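Students often ask why we bother encoding 3D structure as a string. The short answer is that it lets us treat folding as translation between two languages. Here is a chain of 158 residues written in the first language.
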Amino acid sequence: MNGVMIDRKFVIAFRLLMGWTFLYAGTWQVLSSDFSAATFLAHTKTFHDLYAPLTSPAIAPILTFLVSWGHLLIGLSLVSGLLVRVSGIFGVALLLTYWTAHMDFPYIESHVNLIIDYHIVYATLTTWLVVVNAGHVWGLDGWLADRRMLQGRAAATG
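And here it is in the second language, the structure alphabet:
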């Protein structure tokens, strides 16, 4: 089997998996009346002084809106392959924020996770998707790039 085709299948598979992860979280958060980013951040330990101000009544609703819609839009971007490089950077930023938010150094969330947990794995995978330009593999980024290239050729010859 062609190695390039295998690589492309991995890219699309990982892009869809990460896209679904963000899309599901965002859909649940947007549709839920119970979700609050402040609740998540209220239990910070290692970086409590950094995250505690974000739980104030003035900031919490704005943060909750940004987080829930951010998840949804990042998920839509990854699933469709549109603006993957942009959404991927925001996704990595969110994942690293979650990683530090529940850090009780050197443990993450519980004593089962020593420094590394699933947030770091997801952030690494999302970084890889940005680096390999995953939106160009069976995604709208690739389709738009092809259209621009064809328009450029037509303008040059016309």
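Translate back mentally: The beta strands are 103-104, 107-108, 110-114. Keep this in mind for the problem set.
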